[in-house]
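Record 1 of the preview.
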Amino acid sequence: MQLTNIGEGVQNKELKIEVESLTNKFEDLQEEIEHSLLDKEIAESELEEEKAKIKALEERVGELEVEVGVFREENGQFRLCSIQSRD
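->
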């Protein structure tokens, strides 16, 4: 009977060690998940900021395209006036 108790004691000790090991692994995984979620939130925030910058740059490109068109038109009119005044 005492051998049985000793065997059970060894099994209980092994189970406690395994439970502790699994608990530690679980806590480590939980921490990894929390870090990953935080990284994801940061990346999403940075993505939104970059999208806003791209939108602003696209708007500026549109403005510059209009300005270039106006300058080209003015330059064409200036050339026409210069040519007519020479004649």
